[in-house]
Structure formats: structure tokens, C-alpha cells
Amino acid sequence: MSTVNEALRELQGRVEEQCASLRRLEDEVSKVVVGQKDMIEALMLGLLTGGHVLLEGVPGLAKTLAVSSLARALHMSFQRIQFTPDLLPADLVGTLIFDQRTNEFITRKGPIFANVILADEINRAPAKVQSALLEAMQELQVTLGDESHRLEEPFLVLATQNPIEQEGTYPLPEAQVDRFMLKALVAYPTREEERLILDRMVGGELPAIDAVMTVPELMDAREVVAEVYVDDKVKDYVLDLVRCTRDPGDFDLSLAPLITNGASPRATLFLTRAGKAHAFLRGRAFVTPEDIKAVGPMVLRHRIAISYEAEAEELSSEDIVRSIFDQIEVP
To answer: Binning pLDDT at 50, 70 and 90, where does residue 26 land?
Structure first.
């Protein structure tokens, strides 16, 4: 026991040391993005775990600004890709060009070859483009011709989509939505926040963003996050939450008619990793059930397929997730 406590104390010191650089990064983003704490935290969680993040909200809520500001605060390559209905896979991943002088094909890499990718309005691209992005997100590689090219680590896709627009959009297939570790819902600012936005934006230029974190510093932070301690009781809590989405009757919950498909084992892994990152951001070397509850909606809301009965009762996956967290016993 003393050995375990000693290891935790040593890990706690490393967490506090690494956490300071993440706070500086968060402060840099907050210089231009007013409020939106949940969105900024989702971006931080994705950055610390290597998980892709989907930001959903109506236009004008600073989704693109937040991602581009985060990229500027990192010493990493960044590409913004505006998704449109006429976008081709080659516009994303690149293509092979025939050189008549050498009678050889030359690889022209596309904008996907960067550390941070902003996929703006991702649901405007057709299925072929979404499929090309899916390979990059899942396999960390791109296939051009008969050759595969590895993407440089870290590789992070931060995507935005507008939930109210229907014309000219292509809803993301379930397989691709599941590849996003987190789905953050971006809400309207409060009155006080909107007044601050008004004063800041109308008065002049945005504050300058300084690059405060390098790739080695980020990878070091990720190593510490991976070592954050998760107790067996917390692991059991995660398993109960995920399995409840598949077999709610086993937990005495009357949710079975409302769910057509529950969360996959990928949700179990992502929920645990996100919980570790959440604990890290709060300067702790161990995960508590409150960490799991804090990140749970972002991990599970896009992994539960609701039934027609749930739609008839005007219930969303968000309502079902909230019900599960309210009813599953906390260790």
C-alpha cells in the first residue's frame, strides 16, 4: 500500500507540473473566445487524449474561432478545410500527378497532412469525402493510388456542423460519428458574455494569440494523462453506464423501448480516457465518479440511437443519457 501511495504522490507532482502548460493554453484561447467553457474544455480533452471532437451549434457561436485560436496557440501545423457539396476526396487527401519529364507519378499531399485539422461544416461534404476523412481519423493514414502514407502525430480532427440546416447537407453516417470521441453542443452566450463580446469585437482587433505549447510538451502531457489512476470501482461504474445503454432492463430501467442501439465498447474506452483527462485538467492524479459524470454526456450523446417511440415522446439521446446518469448508482 505504501508503494502505491508513493507512486500516486510522484504522479501527482507530474500532473501538477504538466497541468500548468495546459492552463496557459486554455488562457490563450480564452483571450479571444468569450465564455463557451464547455466547448473549450472539449477541445482540451481531445487534445490530451488524441480523440477527435465534433462541435455542434448554430452559426456565429465562435466554433471556428475557438479551433483556429487553439491551433495558433500550439507550435503545430494547422489546416482549415471548408467542406462544401462539390468537395472531392482529392481536395482533402491529395492526388497523384503525372510528370511528363520523368514519366513518373508525383504525390501531391492534401491539407489533411497536418497536426490539427478544422473540418468546417463537415456535414456539407458528400459521402466519398467523408469516407476519405474516416480513414484518416481511424487509421492515421491516407491512401493515394496503391500507397499508404502515415499521418504525423499528433493528429486531431476538430469538426463543426450546423444542426438546423438541412438543404445541401449530408448527415454523417453512424460509423463516422462514432469515430469522434466527443460531441460538444455549443450553446448561446449569456447576456453578460454577449455584452463582453460586443465590447471586445466592436472596439477593434482581436488580441494576439501566442504559441505556448510545443509537440513534445503535448506528448509529455499525454503520457501523464495515460498514467492517471482509475480505481476498479470507477471502472465498474463506467461499464455499468455503457452496458445500461444496451440492456437497460438489466439495471431495472424502463428505457428499452426508447433505444434502438446502445454504445459500443469504444464508448467504454473513450469514457475512461476522457475521465482521466478531466481529472488531469483539475490537477488530480486519480479519476473520481464526478469526472466520469462530467464527460459522460459528451462521450455518449452521439452513440445512442433513439427509437421512433422516443421521438414521439419528444425525447432526445441527451435526455436518455441524463436519465441513465441519474439512475445508475455512483460508487
So the answer is: confident
Alpha-carbon distance of 164 to 173, in angstroms, equals: 17
**Could you identify the residue written with the cell 445508475?**
328
Classify residue 223: in a domain, yes or no: no
- Please tell me the distance from the alpha carbon of residue 224 to that of residue 273, in angstroms, as a whole number: 12
Pair 233, 120 in one domain? no
Nearest to 29 by CA among 281, 222, 210: 210
Are 37 and 57 within one domain?
yes
pTM of the model: 0.88
How would residue 2 be classed by pLDDT, with cut points 50, 70 and 90? low
CATH value at residue 122 = 3.40.50.300
- The number of folded domains in the chain is 2
Compute the C-alpha angle 218/285/296, nearest 5°: 80
Query: Exposed (0-12), middle (13-18) or buried (19+): which is 164, by Cβ within 10 Å?
Result: exposed
* CA distance linking residue 234 with residue 287, whole number of Å: 8
Residues 236 and 158 in one domain: no
Which of these, 35, 297, 62, lies nearest to 189 by C-alpha position? 35
Q: Three-state SS for 37?
A: helix
